[in-house]
Amino acid sequence: MIKVVLYGPESTGKTTLSKQLAAHYDTQWVPEYMRQFLEEKWNLKEELISINDLIPIAEGQLKLEKAAAKQADKLLICDTNLLELKVYSEYYYNDYCPEVIKSEATKNNYSIYLLTYIDIPWEPDILRDKPNNREEMFHIFEAELKKQGFPYKILKGNKNERFNKAVEIINALLQN
C-alpha cells in the first residue's frame, strides 16, 4: 500500500489538502488525532497540551492510521504522523520525546512525505501559537526528514498548485 503523509508546520494546509486528496482518489484519510485530542481537552478543561499527553496522542494517531489502513485499498492519505509529534515534542520540551514515540516515528512506514511550505496565510485558532516562527519550524521539519533519510517533496503555492503537485507525485507512485 502507498502511504502518503502531509507533514509540516502549523497552519500550512495539511488537513485541507489531505481531505482533497482522499476525495480525489476515493480513499481513506487519517485525521490528525492530536487536534481532536487537544480540542476535546480544551473544551472539557480549558487546558492546552502537556508532556503527559504525548503518549496518548501517539497511541490515538496510530490507532486511527491502522483502522484507516484496513479500509484503504492501494492508497492511504495521512494528515500528519508520529514524526510530526516527535518534532513538536522536542521543540516544546527541550529536546525531550518519549522513546516509544521516537522509535515508532523513525521507522520509514511511508512512501512519501509531502512537506507543506509556509507560503499560505496563517490562520489562528486555540491550538496554534507560533505565527511568527513558521520559517524556523519549516526548516526544523525538513531537517528531521533529511536526518532520517525519508523521501519527501516540498509543496508550495496556493491550494490548487499544491493539490496539482501532490496529485502528480501520487500518480507517479501509483504507476510504479
TrEMBL record:
A GO MF label: ATP binding
Keyword Cell cycle assigned: no
Coiled-coil region(s): none
Source organism superkingdom: Bacteria
Keywords (A to Z) from UniProt: ATP-binding, Nucleotide-binding
Tagged with keyword Nucleotide-binding: yes
Ranges where the NadR/Ttd14 AAA domain occurs: 3-162
Transmembrane stretches, start-end: none
InterPro entries documented for this protein: NAD_biosynth-regulator, NadR/Ttd14_AAA_dom, P-loop_NTPase
PANTHER family in the record: NADR_TTD14 AAA DOMAIN-CONTAINING PROTEIN, TRIFUNCTIONAL NAD BIOSYNTHESIS/REGULATOR PROTEIN NADR
Protein known as: ATP-binding protein
Organism of origin: Aequorivita flava
